[in-house]
Structures are given as structure tokens and as C-alpha cells.
Amino acid sequence: MCLAVPTEVVEIRDDDPDVAVVEVSGVRRAINIGLLTSEGVQPGDWVLVHVGFAMSKIDEAEARATLRLLEELGQAYDDELQAMAEGVD
After folding, report:
1. CATH of the domain at 79
2. What angle separates helix 75-86 from helix 60-72, to the nearest 10 degrees?
């Protein structure tokens, strides 16, 4: 299963402004934010990530509510976090 996961942007790469480091449930990963250039993604923003790309900005309340629902999926969510940690999409 490949889920779209809400993540918090913790860093924008100086060497490549289309790459951000995001974090979710203690897992950090570099993702592409090039699709959201016009939205001005900054550290502290929340983005919905699917297969390594930020698909949209979302507000923190929506992100946290979605994360709660994903956590209820149990193993499927755990598998997705593991794949993120390993850099697998």
C-alpha cells in the first residue's frame, strides 16, 4: 500500500530549493516540493506526501487529524513509515 502521508517540513535544502526534509512520527526524509513552488513552502508547514512528492499544503489541524486516522490503520501505516525510513516509495 502506498499512502499519502501528512508530514511537517523541517528544512528546505540550501543546495536545492525543490527539496525539503520532512518528518512524521520521528521519521525524516528528503522529498520533492517542486510541485508547490507557487505556495511558498517553509519550515513548519505541513504537506501531504505521496511517492516522495509534496502534493499539497495542508493546515496543521487537518494533518494531525489525518495522522490519527492513519495510526488507526495499524500495520498498513507502520509499513508506510518503514518504507519512508528506508527511502522506498
Report:
1. 2.30.30.140
2. 120
